[in-house]
Structure formats: C-alpha cells, structure tokens
Please model this.
Amino acid sequence: MSERELREKPETRDDVYLIPQSELLKELGTNAESGLSEAEAKRRLETHGPNSIAAEAKTPAYEKLLAQFKDFTVLILIAAAIISAFTGDRIEAILILAIVIVNAILGVLQEGKAERAVEALQKMASPSARVIRGGREQRLPAEELVVGDLLHLEAGDVVPADLRILRSSNLKSEEAALTGESLPVEKDASAQLTEKTPLAEQTNMLFSATGISYGTCDAVVVRSGESTEIGRIATGLRNIDKSETPLQRNINHLGKTLGTACLVIVVITFLLGLLRHGKPMDLFLTSVSLAVAAIPEGLPAVVTIVLAIGMNRMARKNAIVKRLLAVETLGSVNVICSDKTGTLTQNEMTVREVYAGAAHYEVTGVGYSPEGEIRDLGNTDYHDNAAYRRLLEVAALCNDSSLLEDEGVYSILGDPTEAALLTFVEKSKHSIAELKQEHPKQADKPFDSKRKMMSVFVEGLEPGLVSLTKGAPDIVLDRCDFELLASGERRPLSDERRREILAENHAMAQKALRVLAFAYRPLAATDEAGAVCEDSMTYVGLVGMIDPPRSEARDAIAICHDAGIRVIMITGDHMDTAEAIARDLKLMGEGMRVVSGQELEELSDEELGAELDEIAVFARVSPEHKTRIVRLLKEHGAIVSMTGDGVNDAPALKQADIGVAMGITGTEVAKGAADMILTDDNFASIVSAVEEGRIIYSNIRKFVGFLLSCNIGEILVIFLIMTFLGPEMIPLLPVQLLWLNLVTDSFPALALGREAGETYLMHQKPRLRDEKILNREMIASISVQAIAIFLTVFAAFQIGRYFYPDQLLNAQQQVIQIADRFHFFALEGFSPSDGARSFAFVTLICAELLRAYSSRSEKSSVFQVGFFSNSTMNRAVLLSFVLLLLVLYVPAFDFIFHTIMLTDRDWLIIAVLFLLPFIAGEIFKLLYHRRERK
Model:
C-alpha cells in the first residue's frame, strides 16, 4: 500500500459501514483470512501511531497557583499591599499579602485533592486483543493495533477499536456507554445498510470500548485511536471551553464594583481635603485608610475556605467535586439534563409482568438480585399454574447466561435479558442449578437475527427429548399449534386465543416492556430434532421486562420539581421506552412531549429554542445532539447540569455548567469531562449536592452581607467624621481596619459559612444566571446596618473625645509606664485621639461580633434559629473577642494598634452602644419579610 493510499484510507471516512466487504478489504490492503503481515503492521504503527487517545495535558502546579490571583478582588488587595509598603506601613502590607497567598494555596490544595480522588476511581487494566497476523493468532496490547488488523472476538471481550464485521455468529454488542441503548444490539456481518444510518443502527459495525455480550465474530480494524467514535468524542472535548461559573461572575462583579467605588471615594476624599487646606501626606494616609476600609480583605479567603468545606461535605455524601467553584454552581442549577440508562434506570434488565395459563402476574424487585415476589393479579396462584411452571423451566434451561454473587452483590455473565429471566426464576423459588442438573442440555439451536428464536434440547421434562424455545412473540406464536393451560391440559391454539395473546403482547409493549414468548415441543424418537423442533410447538406464556427506573430517582425528581428545577431526559434509547420511563418517574408534565434525534435534525436552532420549554424527553439522539441541546438551554438563560455515565455523554458533560458523571458505571472519558463524580451512581445524590450548593450560596450571601455592611459602615465613619471634624481627624487607623477586616470579621464570617441549611431553600426557585449577590434585599439590609454602625461608632468616637479625655489620657500614661518597665520600644505617634480611636475600635469590633449572630439568617430572627445553635459561631466569636483583649491589654500590641487600656466604666458604655446595629438588623428582617410570614 502506498503512502498516498494510507493517507486516504477508510479511517477518514464516516461511511465504512456502506462499503462492500471485498472493496473494503482491498482499500485496507489486508486479507480476510490471514490479516496483515507483521512487517506491514509494524510500518503502519510507526506511520500512524498507537491505537490510543492522547491524554489531556495536566495543568502545571504553577499555572494553578497563578490562576488563583486572577480574581479582581485579589488584584485590588495586592495593589493595596504595594501602596501600604511604599507608605511605610509594612505590617499592613505583610498581612494583606499573607492572606492573599494563603487563599491561593487553599484553592490549589483543594482542587489537587479532588484530582487525586478522581485518579483513584480510574481503572488500571490495559485491554488486549486477539489479532491474526500472517495467518497466526496472537494476543497483543490494544494500543498496538493498526487499521487493517484482523481480530477475533467472543462474548466478554472489549472491542479495542472501530471494526467492520466480516463473519459473525449470533453476535450481540453492549453499546449503552456509546449510544445509550440499554439492551445488547444484534450484529450481523451481512447487514445491508443505507446512507445516513444512525450510529446505534449500524449493525455491521463494532465500536471501540463497547463489549461483546453474546456470540463470536471476525472483524477488521477500520478506525483506530482518535479516529474512532470514542476518539472523536474525546478530541471534541478539548475544544469545549468551560464558561465562568455564576459565583465567579458575581465575585468578579462585586470586586469591580468595590474597586470602582474605592477609587471614587479616595479621589473625592483627597480633593475635598485639599479644598479644606489639609496636608497632602495626611490626606494620602486618610485615603489609604478609606481604601483599606472599602475592601473586605478577608472575603476571598472566606469564600475559598467555605467552598472547600462544602467540597469536603459533598465528598462525604458520595459526590466528588473536581473544581472548587463548581460547588456553589450546583445550587444555581435550574435544569438537569439526565441520561436514562444507568442514571435514571438501573441498567439491569428486570422482569415486570408474566402472562401464563391466561393468568396475569406482577414481579417485584429490581436488578439482578433475586429479592422480590410474584403477585397474582387474578385468581390463579402461580404454584398451581402448570403453564407458569413450564415457563420457568424454559426460562432457566433455554439460557446461556449466568448469575454471579459476591457477598450479596449480583452481577451477570452473558446477556442482560437472559440474566433477568434467571433472576425471575429465582424469585419464583426455583433453583436454577437443580433444574440444569435434573434436565441436562443435549444440544441447542442458537439465536440468530433471522429466526429471532433460540431453542435447546433437554431430557427429563417428559419422556424423551423436549425442545424449549424462547423468542419474538409474533414469530414464536406463528410456530405454535397448541397451548398449555393452567390446569396442565394441552389443547389446540384457536385463532381467538392467538388474538388475545397478541393483544397481551401489545399491552406489554405499550408499557415499553421487552416481551419474549415461551414454547416447547416434545420430540418423538423418529423426529429430526433440528428440523422440526420449532414447528407445531405448544405455547406457554409471555414475559415482559424492562430496565427499571431507580426508585430513588423518582423521589429525587419530585424534590427537583418542588425546588423549581426542570429535569429533561436525553437518551439514545427508543422513544417508546424513554417515554414510558419518563412517565413512570413523573418526569413528564401535562402538555410535555418527546422529540427524536431525527426530528432534531430537521429543526433549526431558532425553532428548537422556541420549543425547548415543551420538551421533556429527547430520544435516539447522538452525542452532537446532546451538546447542541445543552448549548441552546444555556443560550436561553438556563444554568444546566448534565448527568451521565457513557462516552456519548462526555461532550454534553463538558458543555454543561455542571457535568455530573457516575463513578462506578461511568466511563473514564465521562469522568474526565465532568465537574462532579457521584461515587455511588445514585441520581438522588445530585439532589443532595444541589441542596448543598444552595446552602453554600445562601451562606456566602450571609457573610458577604455581614462583611460589606461593616466595610461600608467603616467608610461612612472615616469619610463623614473627616468631613465634619476636619481632614486631620481619622477615627480608625489603617492597621486597625486591617485587623478588623482580616481577623475579627473573618472568623465569624467563616462560622456563617458553616451554617446548616434553612428549610425554605429547597422550596424556592433557583436564582437566575445573571442574578447578583447584591440584590435589592441585601442592599437594603447593608444600608440599614451600615448606617447603624456609623451612628454607633461616631457616638463612641465622640464620647471618647469629649466626655472622657482625662481618663483616656491616664490610661495612655499607664501604657507608657508599662512599656518603660519592660523595655518595650519607644512610643511614637500616640496622641489624645488614640483614646477616641480605642473607643471607636472596640465598639465596632463588639458590634460586629454580636451582629454576626443576627446575620445567621437573612429572613428569620436569630431567636427563631437558636441564638447559640451554631457551635462554630460561638467559638469564632469567643476567639475574636480574646484577640481583641490581647490587642487592648498586651503592651506590645498597643504600640502597633495605637490603643489604650479600657476601664470597667468604659466597657459599660460600649456595651450599650454595640447593641444598636444588632437591634437594627433584627428589626429590618422583621419588617422586610413581614409579608412572607402572613
């Protein structure tokens, strides 16, 4: 084969399923019997590379660290630190930079922890394949395969590349991970297909990473590595950029607002001071004080820590979040797009209904566990029904699959449909092992897609051999001349009974059940078993089965609806099956409808966008369809979560605001694309994660309101006191403001981040994508409390200046004497204003500590919530108060913060003052939310 021919090989074509086998083999330069030569295979491997998908490069640690400094608020803090350093306030500069660095390290550590958790979930097995090269069969690592290699596959094998089937025998492939099809797909090497055949219906093809569940085949590699269907999906994932989360937009918007306001206030203050003949350097220091007051320095660190706490809490609830900011985004989700197979359903076929001897039975239980019972829906106990007993025998013996049990956990070997029949037999209190031992199989006629039946020959049921058959109801029934009654009588099958049985089959199919018919035929010694076994049979009964919905998913969907979250099913499965599952889960409301992938193809983005609100289920969709649906939902303002486990879900998982993959059944591609992984594969866990996200956002609002009201109160204090009393009168020094913002306020703010969720959170609609943290309610609350803080601190400052000058100066003198005695550094910069500042500083801190309790709920009184019910808050307030006492009464700190020692009488006055902001906050909540209480 020439280099030019290799460049144009069918690997680059999407229609390899259409090319005749002989022409395909010629284009590939291979042989249907002996495969490629070793030399040719080696040359192709060197030319085109291994059969593997390049892993996405990991972000280096230094890039992750630098990314933490992109937040606008953090940039303002860095600028403030630089200014402080140039003005000689090195302590302030060091404190600010320390908090910025700690914040960055926390973010990197948490995301690194999540990455390690994801790596622990990944499977370490390296697949291999049976390859025929030069006429000799050998087993090679899958990554050494090349286009043109001839492979042999059997039940249990994993398909290592995209293959065109050359020869097949009763072949079935498990393609749920790629197409969403819950049942094994019948494959046929001789299938003649038409152009634009959907991936799920390309029956002469096998696709990489799917599994062989039944039969054998020989096939040729037509696409390898990143050219396979899975490879294309993985490549496409790299081209999907993650948009900013709502919290990122909110925090950045808040940072820009604060930064702009800060600059405006600083400029106004400086110019106003110059007009009043203030000293430029004093005015500059005052402006720096205002800048420090305007910025909540602790906010970035508190947000990071609270998100990290939420991340750890979610991990304990079986949800591993890979990106820190994704924790909060869950709380804003208003649309959950969910795959069906394995996510909303068990991905384990289960028998639901039985019709035998003209009697109806319901089978309970789910999955392959034999726990459940048989419920008689008429007057015939199944123990007394001969037709039911024979149906059990056919189900157990005409079966090539096995149930495996390991410490109470059941799995299967073989076809899921046959495994469901074995579970049904066990639920009916019959031992499969005993049945097979008492009635050994002598021969069989395997299932094939033309006959749509399978038969086995066993001994011991009746004299001589008996053939047992299962298959498609219409075909099996057409081959039956007799019917077995519940009494055990065998009588001719009338046309009327045929119509009744077909009506029962139709009724089951309408419920999206997969229906099988069962029959048998006693064989005479003169019968040629293989020729007559499937003619003139005796009909036994029907069995209807389905991949059932998860019971917890039904409850989770109800909670989602109550929380204003819309759930949409997006699946590659058939429309009837998808609709039946959706109705069973109560996912479809009145007027909602199902749309197929074919219909999607015919709709423009504008037409589909206009109809999105009416669609509950998308069925028979491709990976491209899923990504398109998620993209259009986002364009229409939705905050979208996509859940899934298959490779076919990966592009949509990455496109969504929050991609959620299943940790147990999920493919590695899906886990890599997702933002969150559910370690228990439980759809209901996402509801817990959404609730946790709402709690986190609610708590972020609480401490943002708490911090900003203090900052705005500080701005009012400095700006208005300087305006009214002169530019030289600075009520709070920059170092005092920094201590308040970074230390005193940060501990209670962290405690607010640990608040338990309030009951109303999951009974309200999700917030809009563009909703700001600073909404009307918060602005009103901040305004009221900032004014209360200003009035309180202004009063404290004035009391300190005019009513207690001597006492304050005496206290200051005590500090000087203590400093001299213990040889502390010389006191510089102390002035009579330090007494007034001490009053203002202590009053503001105490007001903040008490106000933190009021901030525990935006709507309810702290007395309704329980004043001391948050133990973390109690410890935080106690710690902050102890730190305040250290600043006041340890001489070394006095020199840094320019404070004096307060007396008992001073504390009594301050105690009265610091109650005012707390009372203002409680009254505001009472009045603002009074309508909601009525």
Summary: The chain has 37 helices and 27 strands. The longest strand covers residues 162-174. The two ends are 83 Å apart (CA to CA). Confidence is low (pLDDT under 50) at residues 1-10, 117-126, 818-832.
